[in-house]
From TrEMBL:
Domain of life the protein comes from: Bacteria
Protein name, per record: TonB-dependent siderophore receptor
Family annotation (Gene3D superfamilies): Carboxypeptidase-like, regulatory domain, TonB-dependent receptor, beta-barrel domain, TonB-dependent receptor, plug domain
Membrane topology recorded in Swiss-Prot or TrEMBL: Multi-pass membrane protein
Family, similarity comment: Belongs to the TonB-dependent receptor family.
Protein localization: Cell outer membrane
Cited NCBIfam families: TonB-siderophor (TIGR01783)
Pfam family, one: TonB_dep_Rec_b-barrel
This protein's GO CC annotations: cell outer membrane
Every TonB-dependent receptor plug domain range: 133-230
Length: 800
């Protein structure tokens, strides 16, 4: 009996002791309500330490009940402590908010082994905070860390890291659409968004102020309208934000072809209570050329202020000011009216080492962006987000065309030029209400928004004049006589009319979107937009007349489904997305045939898989898409009473289908890899007989492949030494493709790039070789554009 009693006493003591051992868990968020991963969490008096996961969660097991002090800390952040009482049955600690926002945590690199080339969430893609795994839309990001790893000074080159994107034209600076053109899922696109609002430039953005580039894929009319985006998707530049820690980075890059670039990034609190934060990014760039003439010189500055009025209200003011002076990049226009004699760049008797311009034939593209944003947390469920943006851009100077126009040869080339004076203004106001609430057991995230976009352009341009005609088959002496004085003389002698006009249009949009969590793993997305486009027409100052006024209304629905096969790790998704483009009316040759048209419509069906494994160390998006476009106008000839009339009908169609693969991974400490691949099949399925059933020239290369890997040692004798290498590949590109001309083919190419770097304390040294094998290659879109030969860059940076 005594033994039984002893056993019972031991068991009772064990049970009572076990009941005192409980679980403690909680969450750590940044100041801007984002999960803080990699934060050290400790309970004083215990040797156990926990680290927050990708969702900011931490857990302790086997903790005795009682009162304790819980401490959260990490290198570079302000430690915080909380008094907690651990009760029997377990304790959930109230959420701890850090003083630093998410950007600051990333800036001071608290995470150790992390995927620097990926972001797992975005507030802009869906216009609400949404994790990538919950979003049925494909998108890819290019982070500032990737740009630094590649010693990247060019926005155009940065986009080579995204599947399905390829540069067609570099920035021309010309009026209206002077920024670079890209193909995206087979359709043209330009970088026309900054922080989710319209911001158009006449040149490529300077990457100095970029936190990341978001490429949001597929028709996106339901959230972004149709005034500034293409059917293949949109490019949204996310700018750097003010931080509540003091720091910065100064960088000097220099290299081949007289390349010099100095950048500065300085940030920190401007008040003792850290309510007022500031940041300034600035850059000066000089780029020469591998040709006999040409340069681009620019200055860029971007100040930013953030005021945290209280726990509910944040106000941010941003500005971006850009000044430049540059020559015209060489773009050789092919004859579009007859069969081409040359079908590849090598068959053209053309010296691409010549620029066909002069260093005094220049243009300027000053630009200013001013944005204000206010985020007000109305309550625990609803947030108001208000943005007002003003953009002004200018094209001022000489713009030239180099064109093969002769009917019987591809050796005589015409050089045209004009003196341009163009100013455009854009005002975009956007109000969004974002809710996060439950109906029953089902979570809803709702977006209700309106926006207004106003655009005005005023043009005072000279006529385009033929300056000279030269023979490209030999070293024509007249080649060297082209300059600004010769252009001025040709304009003065011309009888052509100047262009003096002003165009205006406004777009009002209203949209609603909802993400319904049917279960914690099943997410249903629905969205609808109404867009009213009001074109005020173009006013001719000389004739005192206005023409082209019209209005159109479009509706754009969207639906998506996401199922997380493994919660927070793997999801499969499908979507239906819609986009639209306004079509202006025309005057038909017959009065009984209407010249009023409907907006073009693009419909996408897409399905794919997304992975986020090993705490964000491997991120993958792979998908198949099918985009069909309807309501395309095309010419048609009809017969009336024995006579033929040319009219325009709106029954044209087009298809674009493909697969895309975007992978970023950090498989071990110091190693970061990005790999992308895309295949696109595009065809005009009902169009003018000259191009029907052919691949559109804007579709670009059928296959694109990119890989970049960088490794930096963090310990041992090689501590701080880094190496990077990558490959860019594009298949052949049909830049002219019609029955009258035949096909002109830009050959496939593969570029090899490599870098070496060394980091010691706050200093960073790097050497980068672009086009290491000195491959001759071209891009284009009805043009032949020679690209830069091998160039070597050196980089010296200091971080503080």
């Amino acid at each position: 009996m005594r033994k039984i009693l002893m056993v019972l006493c031991v068991l009772a003591h064990t049970v009572l002791y076990a009941q005192r051992k409980v679980e403690v868990k909680g969450k750590v968020l940044s100041a801007d309500n984002e999960p803080a991963m990699g934060i050290t969490v400790k309970i004083d008096g215990f040797e156990k330490i926990s680290f927050t996961d990708q969702n900011g969660n931490y857990t302790f097991n086997g903790i005795d009940t009682g009162r304790y002090v819980l401490v959260v800390s990490a290198v570079g952040i302000k430690p915080q402590s909380r008094q907690i009482y651990i009760r029997p049955g377990g304790t959930v600690v109230p959420t701890i908010y850090l003083s630093e926002n998410r950007s600051a945590l990333e800036e001071i690199n608290i995470y150790g082994v992390s995927n620097k080339y990926s972001k797992k969430s975005s507030p802009y893609v869906a216009k609400m905070p949404l994790r990538n795994l919950e979003n049925p839309q494909s998108y890819a990001v290019v982070t500032k860390e990737l740009l630094q790893s590649q010693v990247n000074t060019s926005f155009d080159n940065a986009l080579a890291n995204v599947s399905g994107v390829d540069q067609l034209w570099g920035a021309t600076g010309r009026p209206g659409d002077g920024a670079s053109y890209y193909t995206l899922r087979g359709f043209t696109s330009q970088a026309a968004m900054v922080n989710g609002v319209v911001s158009i430039a006449s040149t490529s953005p300077d990457p100095a102020n970029l936190e990341m580039i978001e490429v949001i894929k597929g028709p996106s009319g339901s959230l972004y309208g149709g005034a500034a985006i293409g059917f293949g998707g949109l490019i949204n530049n996310v700018t750097k934000k003010p931080l509540d820690t003091i720091g910065g980075r100064i960088n000097y890059i220099f290299g081949s072809f007289d390349q010099h670039r100095v950048t500065a990034d300085v940030y920190g609190p401007l008040s003792k209570d850290r309510k007022l934060l500031g940041r300034v990014n600035a850059a000066f760039t000089n780029t020469g050329t591998f040709q006999d003439a040409g340069f681009n010189r620019s200055f860029f500055i971007a100040p930013s202020l953030m005021y945290k009025a209280n726990d509910r209200l944040d106000i941010q003011l941003d500005a971006e000011i850009y000044q430049n002076k540059a020559t015209n990049p060489l773009m050789v226009f092919l004859n579009r009216r007859r069969e081409l004699f040359a079908r590849t760049p090598t068959e053209l008797e053309f010296d691409f080492d010549k620029s066909y311009t002069h260093n005094d034939v220049t243009f300027k593209n000053p630009m200013a962006n001013i944005r204000g944003n206010a985020v007000y947390r109305m309550n625990d469920q609803w947030t108001s987000n208000t943005t007002v943006s003003f953009n002004q851009r200018k094209s001022d100077g000489y713009f030239q065309y180099v064109m093969f126009l002769q009917p019987d040869n591809d050796t005589l080339i015409d050089r045209f030029a004009a003196d341009q004076d163009y100013v455009a203004k854009v005002v975009n106001a956007q109000q969004n209400f974002v809710g996060d609430y439950k109906i029953g057991a089902m979570r809803n995230r709702t977006l209700i928004g309106v926006d207004y976009l106003f655009q005005q352009a005023e043009t005072h341009n000279s006529p385009y004049v033929l300056v000279d005609r030269i023979n490209t088959a030999y070293d024509d002496p007249n080649y060297y006589t082209f300059n600004a004085a010769k252009i001025d003389a040709a304009i003065a002698a011309s009888n052509g009319a100047e262009t003096n006009n002003r165009s205006r249009n406004g777009v009002f949009g209203a949209y609603v979107s909802n993400v319904l969590d049917v279960t914690p793993s099943l997410h249903v997305h629905l969205a609808l937009r109404m867009d009213y486009f009001d074109n005020k027409g173009t006013y001719d100052f000389d004739a005192d007349t206005t023409r082209g006024a019209y209005s159109q209304t479009a509706f754009s629905p969207r639906a998506g489904l996401v199922y997380e096969l493994v919660k927070d790790r793997m999801s499969i998704f499908g979507n239906y997305q819609n986009g639209f483009k306004n079509v202006a009316p025309i005057v038909q040759s017959l009065p009984d045939i209407s010249g009023d048209f409907k907006p073009q419509q693009a419909e996408q069906w897409e399905a794919g898989v997304k992975l986020n494994l090993f705490n964000n160390l491997m991120v993958l998006t792979a998908s198949y898409y099918d985009i069909s476009v309807s309501n395309i106008t095309r010419p048609e000839s009809i017969e009336r009473d024995g006579q033929f009339y040319n009219i325009t009908v709106q029954d044209g169609t087009r298809l674009s289908r493909g697969v895309e693969f975007d992978l970023t991974t950090a498989p071990m400490e110091g190693l970061d890899i990005i790999l992308t691949y895309s295949n696109n099949s595009s065809k005009l399925t009902k169009a003018d007989a000259n191009v029907n059933n052919l691949r559109p020239t804007e579709a670009g290369p059928r296959n694109l492949f990119n890989v970049w890997a960088s490794y930096t040692a963090h310990r041992g004798l090689l501590n701080g030494v880094g190496i990077g290498a990558g490959v860019n590949h594009a298949s052949e590109n049909l830049i002219t493709n019609s029955v009258p001309t035949g096909a002109f083919i830009i050959p496939a190419y593969t570029l090899v790039n490599a870098s070496l770097s060394y980091t010691y304390r706050n200093y960073e040294l790097a050497v980068k070789a672009n086009n290491l094998t000195d491959r001759t290659y071209y891009k284009g879109w009805s043009t032949v554009n020679p690209m830069m030969s091998r160039n070597i860059l050196g980089s010296i940076a200091y971080r503080f």
